[in-house]
Amino acid sequence: MSASVTSPRVLAIDGLSGSGKSTVARAVAVRLGWAFLDTGAMYRAVTLAVLQNGIDPADRAAVVGLLGTLGVEVTTDPQDVRVTLDGVDVADAIRTPAVTAAVSAVSALPEVRAVLLRWQREAVARASESGTGIVVEGRDIGTVVLPDAPVKIFLVADALVRAARRAAQDERRTGGERPQGQVLAELQRRDEADSSREVSPLRAAPDAVTIDASELAVDEVVNSILHRVAESVSR
Ligand code: DC
């Protein structure tokens, strides 16, 4: 395990789909002047490549074969997050419903998780070497990727609140409106798939602080997390 994993300036944020994780994690990184890593973007970029190559996400050998050929880059500047696949900007392409529908199957493959775990720890080590802290956001950060992170947050929110938020987000992104019931069903399917997979399932680490964001504004969640980080860094 790299030295960075035990750094006091590492913050792990995990949680449910649509809980506001990305928005909160990025805002916390900006306020702290730390780097930010969206690990979901890595899983999404690999999934996009799987679909673009006409590979069935269930065809494990084909997915694994493809993985070794991919150049996935996710930048760690919270003010300028860019995602590229073999040099092509895929920031929008990784958020389409087709990628969202296939990402749980791809991210359940142990070989995929092993490679992305390595990419993620490398990104943390780079941030640490350059002297900054890092906020890492995902599903298994506190449990698997950075089990020694001194501050771990697990963000949850009521399913209806999450569906409403995600539907509004999708609408802003695509201009198209989708029934909230459909968005809710998709969220629940993804949470269930991510929580029940064998390798690194979505779950709170025993030492994580769970924050229910259902009735909190983004700033309130951000301030509560900043407070915990300040406490930890001054300890
Ligand atoms: O955070 P997101 O919705 O962009 O993540 C997309 C998917 O990637 C999510 O459904 C499960 C997977 N994922 C994962 O398995 N482990 C992570 N650390 C991050 C995301």
If you had to describe this structure to a student in words, what would you say it looks like?
This protein is an alpha/beta fold and 235 residues long. It has helices at residues 21-32, 39-52, 60-67, 97-107, 110-129, 141-145, 159-174, 180-196, 218-234; strands spanning 10-15, 35-38, 72-74, 83-85, 88-89, 134-138, 151-156, 209-212. The chain has one domain (2-234): Rossmann fold (3-Layer(aba) Sandwich), CATH 3.40.50.300. It is 51% helix and 14% strand. Helix 1 (21-32) packs across helix 9 (218-234) and helix 4 (97-107) runs parallel beside helix 8 (180-196). The protein is globular. Bound molecules: 2'-deoxycytidine-5'-monophosphate. The site of 2'-deoxycytidine-5'-monophosphate has 14 residues, from helix 2, helix 4 and helix 8.
